[in-house]
Specification:
It contains 14 helices and 16 strands. With 434 residues, the protein is of the alpha/beta class. The strands form four sheets. Strands 1-7-6-5-4-2-3 form a seven-stranded mixed beta sheet, with helices on both faces. α3 packs across α8.
Length: 434
Amino acid sequence: MKPIYDAIVRYSREKPARFHMPAHFGVRDEGLYASAPFDVTELCFSDNLQNPSGIIAESEKQCAEIYGAKRSFYLTSGSTTGIFVALSAIKKFTGEVIVARASHKSVYAAVRLLGLTPRYIPASFDENGIPLPVTPEDVKNAIEKYPSAGAVIITSPNYFGMASDPRAIYGITSAYDRLLVVDEAHGAHFPFAGLSGYSFAKTADVSVTSLHKTLPVYSGGAVINCNNECLFDEIAALRADLHTTSPCYLTLASMDYALDEFRADNGKKYDALYEKVTSLKNSLGAEFIGNNDYTRLVCRIGDEGFSALSRNGVVPEMRFNDLAVFILSPVNASRTEEIRAALSGVAVRGKAKVLPYPTPVSGKACGEGTWLTPNDAVGHTALREVGAYPPGIPVVAYGETITREIADVLQKSDVFGFVNDRIYVTIDKTTEVI
């Protein structure tokens, strides 16, 4: 069943004279506007994301069944909106939250702008500099260390396909009567790929998933899955407040379509993908980084490998030191041979030197702020998050000091949080740490 998609297709086939938004009026061409006939607005048949009661509500119900959640709430403005909605909802119950230090920038922005007090689970890294998932022990220790924090916010899976243990972590948060919020942006495919055991969607109080990251969904397609009935009304109301009032119906229809397609397939396409991934890994002499998600290929290829990919028109998701991260799916499975062809014969000579992640140093975030270059900001306390993207984890967060080491890292990275190459910090130096 594809209620949103089917309704939009029926409308486009009728070829009505459109005098409503969006102002391309459904006029298609053979290029960018090929899908224009399917892009509509809130009409008598198309429901309203602000208060769904028709085809959107029906599709959300089906989504909840797929993920095993009690309620699902669609978004067309990405998981960042979902994080803001989720944290705004839990603010009613707690003003202090435990946050995994290796969280995405959206978590930090929401915590800061909502005035929540963060208590961090320190980040740990493997020998490649990859931030590791939070463990049950991490969560338990943090709850006992910060007894007044009413919620735990973690990320799983991470950008590298490594996941936390849903059952064990939820068992701890529920035993301590704490809310559990999970940034599950990269796990939308788990129910279809035989990876349901790593999904928090059916256990966490709230989990936020970006469908567009790993399913054939237009950009911005995301969903909030909720299992705590005390949060249902809050999330519904906050979505109406924080989400655009002009949701993209192309995105909604693609979410509806993709979820139905993979549910009907019953895992067959992902079984075939698993075989292709296994064959690819066996045929290449490269080193692969172990993870929990076979669709997220992390491969050490070095400079020579990245040059080979570029020459052959193969574009990975990201480069992380000398590692390439590939997102694989039944949609691009037929092209995995191109990865093999590009990297065949590539020799990796040693490992790239991994700079240690700078140890955060707490400063004093008080008074007014100013924008300074990284060099001038050394010794000042950050009033906004700054870090490398991807994976979008802040190198320095609000209330942490810009050390000499951090300044050097930020000047060598593709960063977020800068404005005109400057960082927002306290006017005065608040620590002598350099």
